[in-house]
Amino acid sequence: MSHISPEFVPVFGDCIRMVREVLLTNDAQPFLISGSGTLGWDQVAANVIEPGENALVLNTGYFGLETYGANVTQLTAPIGGTVPLPTLTAALQQKKYKLLTFTHVDTSTGVLSPAAQIAQTVRAVSPDTLVVVDAVCSVASEEIRFDEWGLDVVLTASQKGLGTPPGLSVLVASQRAVKAWQRRTVREGSYYASWKKWLPIMKAYEAGQPAYFATPPVNLIYAFHASLLQITARADPSLPSLTQRLAAHRATSQKIKAAARALGLKQVPLQESEAANGMTALYFPEGVKAADLLPRLGKRGVVVAGGLLGSIKDTYFRIGHMGVTAVDEARGDVDKIIKALEDSLEEIKKEKGGK
Amino acid sequence: MSHISPEFVPVFGDCIRMVREVLLTNDAQPFLISGSGTLGWDQVAANVIEPGENALVLNTGYFGLETYGANVTQLTAPIGGTVPLPTLTAALQQKKYKLLTFTHVDTSTGVLSPAAQIAQTVRAVSPDTLVVVDAVCSVASEEIRFDEWGLDVVLTASQKGLGTPPGLSVLVASQRAVKAWQRRTVREGSYYASWKKWLPIMKAYEAGQPAYFATPPVNLIYAFHASLLQITARADPSLPSLTQRLAAHRATSQKIKAAARALGLKQVPLQESEAANGMTALYFPEGVKAADLLPRLGKRGVVVAGGLLGSIKDTYFRIGHMGVTAVDEARGDVDKIIKALEDSLEEIKKEKGGK
User: Fold this and answer.
1) Contact criterion met (CB < 8 Å) for A167 and B219
2) Identity of the residue in A193, A213, A215 whose CB atom sits nearest the CB atom of B166
3) The pLDDT of residue A355 is above 60
4) Is the pLDDT of residue A288 over 70?
């Protein structure tokens, strides 16, 4: 299928419109570009901020900003926690920042940042600072109210909550962010990630016209279209709505976290309200290691991930429960996960007791 | 399928090895990155050349070099022709160039540049200048002898001669190009396209280990693997070898060009030896327009493209005949194209005559 074929053009246009629907925005500008989620950072760094301008980074996640010349100030949080809002307020009062960025769900710890409050704080203290959200691990599994919260950039990828194979950088920019880009005095620092190249393409496809800068990943756009039809419930009115989907993620998350609590397992996030709804990060019980638990879960058909965060890497594991696992109850994934966890821990206990 | 799954890792590694096979190189370094062919230019511009260094461009095609700070000198050729080798020699003698770049097959005109001779000229006159080939429209349809010709970068995409859906930037760098990158004094100008990030990933996957910088397009890598198995004839020893594939492209091309000549159609390339083997660009006969011919071909099941080059855009059309059309004779594509061309022109003649 050609990328300028009359059959393909409206499919691309629909994807752009449905991405707006998923993020609850009326007029923000989606950019769908062949690449991984990381390419979204090149877009931000090369378009939204100019060399020498200041960026405030909460915790981690500022891939590429320095490559393109931004001055980065980092505020760190305790492991499992987020940067306190008063600390953020103080930082914003001290210096003028072109943008602030934070990771909505930190995939390494399962910490959920209070996106609405962070955005609200920025708007109150430093209204011109752009709010850039790394939402790779949160779009379609956590609530994101783009317009209502006043976000400026949400960047993500096709393969997590959006349920499509990897290969598509999905970025949504507010009109305020687009205007900031239009006002730049220094040329965009990237060629492939330049909005000067891509904005006319996105506008053309949305208007039902093909346009060319670089070949879009046609087949992947079709797959993305299929996912979005499901997520927005356009495919079939009997499908859960986006609101219902997010509620299903919360319910699933609570069920798994409650079961973990009953088993005496401690979560990595320090506060229940800051725990992601699409994943659960749990410390191993004392004396138990990854090599004890993970293969036992695997034997029971449950694949979980090890720890990722440097200093506590070997002390915890991560369960993913986004997308179908949360939404399609008939699969019975949640009960299977809980049962596998219970049985594996019981088995370990018996063996250790027997030694 | 996860990008760190033990099943996926060797598939990625095989792709890297088979790309070397397709380009006839022993030790050049392939980079397979989620993105379009254009991303290859960001790789070249941000890694191989440094700000302030000189680039010599034959004709067109230097996407992004200036964005990353290179000084570009352009040598133009007449429409349908290439830059004469003495002109190239003179330019190389006048100034020191970090790299020279040319488009192997110009998709807008079907002109095939004499890649071997250009590379030979550079090696003779300015041995340190790196030879960068935009081979988007030529890999697997034109002969490319990477090592023998002494090329430094060949960049292409998955969706043309390589026969895979779009979404993969495919770039191969000589060890000389890799060393030039290692010697840079200015940091790479791109984050997503930085070889500092990607080289360890490519090396890890080739060695059978997963590694992470940005998520690779897993499903597309599987598709690419399937294409490469066919192109390298690894899938089935009864498949045509790469040599036979290229011969089939030449034979197909000659057949179509001979038929066009018999119909009195003039090619856009000025010299037969500089006409691409994967496509044919033909001027319309006098008095015939795109609107006369293209729909008539379409009715007969043959989709061709209009002209692309600004000044002669409306005076010619382009027939693609790469991949299965050239290799799989049983499809009968070539005869169908020729018959459609003959019948359409005959029909136009009758109608015009009847008016």
Assistant:
1) yes
2) A215
3) no
4) yes
Judging contacts by C-beta atoms under 8 Å, the chain A residues touching residue B159 are: 215
Interface touch B165/A3, C-beta < 8 Å = no
Report whether A260 contacts A291 (CB < 8 A). no
> How many Cα atoms sit within 13 Å of A72 on the Cβ side?
19
The phi and psi torsions of B172 (rounded to 5 degrees) equal -125, 125
Nearest of B65, B74, B77 to residue B95 by alpha carbon: B74
Q: Nearest 5°: phi and psi at B56?
A: -105, 125
Interface contact B215-A157, CB threshold 8 A: yes
Phi/psi at A239 (nearest 5 deg)?
-70, 155
Which residues of chain B fall short of a pLDDT of 50? none
CA distance B2 to A351: 32
- Residue A118: pLDDT above 90? yes
A61 confidence band (pLDDT: 50, 70, 90):
low
At B355 the pLDDT is 55
- pLDDT tens for B220-241 read 999 999 999 999 999 888 899 9
First and final CA of chain B: distance in angstroms?
Answer: 63
Write down the residue that tokens 């090149």 correspond to.
A42
Q: How far is CA B101 from the centre of its chain?
A: 13
CB pairs under 8 A between A and B: 125
Chain A closest-CA separation from residue B124 CA (Å): 32
Residue A117 in tokens? 């409050």
Q: What angle do CA A103, A107, A113 make, to 5 degrees?
A: 40
- Nearest neighbour of B67 by CB, restricted to A190, A213, A217: A190
pLDDT, tens digit, for every residue of A238-275?
A: 899 999 999 999 999 999 999 999 999 999 999 999 99
The predicted-structure confidence for B162-199, as pLDDT tens digits, reads as follows: 999 999 999 999 999 999 999 999 999 999 999 999 99
Domains and CATH numbers, chain A: 7-232 (3.40.640.10), 242-352 (3.90.1150.10)
Whether A314 and A291 have beta carbons less than 8 Å apart is answered as: no
B57 touches chain A (CB under 8 A): no
Tokens found for residue A182: 């239009």
Provide the CB-side half-sphere exposure for B186 (13 A, CA).
16
**Interface ipTM above 0.85:** yes
Consult the annotation and say whether B245 binds a ligand: no
Residue of A nearest to B222 (CA): A165
pLDDT at A32: 97
Is A36 in the B-facing interface, judged by CB distances under 8 Å? yes
> For position A158, what pLDDT does the model report?
97
A344 touches B: beta carbon within 8 Å: no
Q: What are B267's two structure tokens? A: 């090619």
- The two beta strands, A316-320 and A305-306, are antiparallel
State the angle between helix axes of A195-206 and A9-22 in degrees (0 to 180), rounded to the nearest 10: 100
